[in-house]
Amino acid sequence: MAESAVSQSHPLDTMLAVSDVIRNNRLARLYTRVLELDSPTVEELSEGVESSTTTVYEDVKHLVEIDLLERVTETQPHRYRAGQIDMMIQASGETFQITPTLLVALAERRSNENIRLYIDRHGVSGLATAIEYARSYAQSKMNARIMAREQDLSVLEAETILQELEEILHKTEPDTATSLDIQELDAAVDDRVDE
């Protein structure tokens, strides 16, 4: 097998590998499908997708080469697992966290009109920012009004994207969600409003 671009663990190589998946929706959907199916074979990945088995095989091979997928069996048929991604990128004074949640949200833009519209209006960086808000939202540390004010959105748009992303977070980052504590949420809102 060719040496992986990410195997050297250089952050720039990892960033380039992830950017490849961010730009290619087919790769993002494949990565998401591997997360959902938990160690599938290429044949299992090919079921219910628009791409041919050959294309899926080539895409899996590419994702393995850039270390975003890992082959977990040595015998045929091979099974694959999604590699964990957790990167921080700083640009123009802002910090963005890149995790599987972003890749899953990007993959869902094709079937989820709310996510697609949000990306059209605010770009991938806007979606990455919304995911940060959604983590706080899922932990009952924030609400749509705060996001709307801080990101200059309508409350409806903020609430819509937070709800869509919260569903994705429950799948990709199940430890993020907490039980709702209304008093704690009210106190947090009051603190942020006073700022």
From TrEMBL:
Source domain of life: Archaea
DUF7437 domain segment(s): 110-173
Record-linked InterPro entries: DUF7437, Tscrpt_reg_TrmB_N, WH-like_DNA-bd_sf, WH_DNA-bd_sf
Listed Gene3D superfamilies: Winged helix-like DNA-binding domain superfamily/Winged helix DNA-binding domain
Domain Transcription regulator TrmB N-terminal: 28-82
Pfam families named among the record's database cross-references: DUF7437, TrmB
Name by which UniProt lists this protein: Helix-turn-helix domain-containing protein
The species this protein was found in: Halorubrum laminariae
Organism classification: Archaea, Methanobacteriati, Methanobacteriota, Stenosarchaea group, Halobacteria
